[in-house]
Amino acid sequence: MIIVDNISKSFGDTQILFDVSATFMEGRVNLIIGASGQGKSVLTKCIVGLHEVDKGAIIYDGRDFSAMNRKERIEIRKEIGMLFQGSALFDSLTVEENVSFPLKMFTDMSQEEMRERANFCLNRVNIINKNDLLPAETSGGMQKRIAIARAIAMNPKYLFCDEPNSGLDPNTSIVIDNLIKEITYEYNITTVVITHDMNSVMEIGDHIIFINQGKKWWEGDNKEIIKTDNEEVVDFVYASSFMKNLREKMISS
Amino acid sequence: MNLFEHIGRYFVMLKSVFSRPEKGKVFRKMFFGEVDSIVINSIPLVAFLSVFMGGVISLQTAANMGSPLLPEYTIGYITRSSTILEFSPTIISLILAGKIGSNIASEVGTMRVTEQIDALEIMGVNSIGYLMFPKILATTLFLPFVVIISMALCLVGGWVAGVQSGLYSTETYLIGIKAFWYEDQFYLYYALCKTMIFGFLITSIPGYFGYFTKGGSLEVGRSSTKAVVASSVAILVANYILTQLILV
């Protein structure tokens, strides 16, 4: 479980986050949604420690991450897997080397054990016989799946996904969403997903936080979001007239 | 950011560069990879430049020696001194600042803008040390060997140019090369010492500009240009300071 307690963050004179508090539960897919430029990515980067918070605390299963020094944070970071928007695979390493990279850095596994673990993770995300390819030789959807395989290689307790569906076609997006959901339930991971994708919101949103103007504006799940009358949430989720009509039909039925 | 902020951030970065690597085995593999990609791969360019520059130095020296009072072996002596004191350590380092510097700044800068550095940090890897320490150590330790090769080839270039154009004989040139060597051999140590410092500068400064790149591909290009300019300036300033400290 991750507790975000009253955090604020500014860059120079511009305040991005205002006293945001949230709890991300274990074994559930927690979504952070909101329009562009509202502070979702900054919030996530604060949670994983890529940005330092100005105020407040981030607590990983009772451990106050924001009060830790670099050395102490490394221990928690070994428990974190992250899927970046652009996958962030290492260009110069092959698919297998990318997945086994954290194992090589932080475990004493033999080459054979690392290969076995990398193959297991790659099979888990349905990447088969692509071990020797470079990331540039694979498709966008494959890169996301390889990045998921790398993120789960160390058996993480926490998984962060920054817009996992960006740039993917609807079918591939569904595959990625399902994969994130399955992995979360299978390994009982605390998963935090930043997304704009409404399919994801409806499909995998066990717990949803809506960020607007740097504040937590709304909180609920994928059933509650359909019926909410919070104006900003409705404007965001049902942005098109097609979606608005659909919502009215859903509510009336 | 002003110059002093850059300098301050550069030194803070260096502190992380020299922290203990996460895994010795991984570090050793990366170190030898960098020796190959930065140092060994530069040898063909350095060899080509050195042979031609050696030829030009000796021809220009010969062309400007009008006085009959100057012995002919002075050409070889001046070629040797110019090569050891300035051409090989300083000019070769300046040229490599362009080649190696732009390469490092764009490689690290691209890793920054594509979030690969963030990915390293999230995994708990000291990204500055992981990316830069092997490059800096490889160049600092092995650039002097490249410079020794450059010195030798420069002298060979001077010999070939002078002998084939009939300006002096092999014997005269060799007398010049060997002249006053006992008194002047300190110049070689001075040259190799400053080469090590130049090697440090041409990897750490581009690494700094690459690491702190913000934005997209345009900024990666800008960082690369800034890195080459800054490391060239740093080499020239360091050259002056080291000469003042060691030679004067």
What does this structure look like?
The complex is a heterodimer of chains A (about 250) and B (about 250). Chain A is α/β, with parallel strands linked by helices and about 250 residues long. Helices cover about 40% and strands about 25% of the residues of chain A. In chain A, the strands form two sheets. In chain A, strands 6-7-8-3-9-10 form a six-stranded mixed beta sheet, with helices on both faces. A four-stranded antiparallel beta sheet of chain A has the order 2-1-4-5, with helices on one face. In chain A, helix 3 (about 95-105) crosses helix 4, helix 4 crosses helix 5 and helix 6 (about 170-185) packs parallel to helix 7 (about 200-205). Chain A is globular, with a radius of gyration of 19 Å. Chain B has about 250 residues and is an all-alpha fold. Chain B is about 85% helix and about 0% strand. The longest helix of chain B is centred in the middle third of the chain and has 40 residues, at about 75-115. The radius of gyration of chain B is 21 Å and the shape is elongated. The mean pLDDT of chain B is about 90. Classes of the chains: A alpha/beta (about 250), B mainly alpha (about 250). At the A-B interface, helix 2 and helix 3 of A face helix 5 of B.
Features:
heterodimer, A: 253 residues, alpha/beta, 6-stranded mixed beta sheet, 4-stranded antiparallel beta sheet, B: 248 residues, mainly alpha, 0% strand, elongated
Topology:
The complex is a heterodimer of chains A (253) and B (248).
Chain A lengths: L1 E10 L2 E11 L4 E5 L6 H9 L6 E6 L2 E2 L5 H8 L2 E4 L11 H12 L4 H14 L15 H13 L5 E5 L7 H18 L2 E6 L2 H7 L2 E6 L2 E6 L3 H4 L3 H7 L3 H12 L1
Parallel strand pairs in A: 3-8, 3-9, 6-7, 7-8
Antiparallel strand pairs in A: 1-2, 1-4, 4-5, 9-10
Helix pairs in contact in A: 3-4, 3-5, 4-5, 5-6, 6-7
Chain B lengths: L2 H15 L6 H16 L3 H21 L10 H40 L2 H8 L3 H38 L5 H9 L2 H31 L5 H31 L1
Which structural class best describes the helix and strand composition of chain A?
alpha/beta
According to DSSP, the number of beta strands of chain B is: 0
Q: Note the main sheet of chain A.
A: 6 strands, mixed
Mean pLDDT of chain B: 92
Cα-atom radius of gyration of chain A:
19 Å
Percent strand of chain B: under 5%
For the biggest sheet of chain B, the summary is: none
Tell me how many strands of chain A there are.
Answer: 10
Uncertain segments of chain A are none
Oligomer: heterodimer
Termini separation of chain A (Å)? 36 Å
Distinct helical segment count of chain B: 9
Biggest sheet, spatial arrangement of strands of chain A: 6-7-8-3-9-10
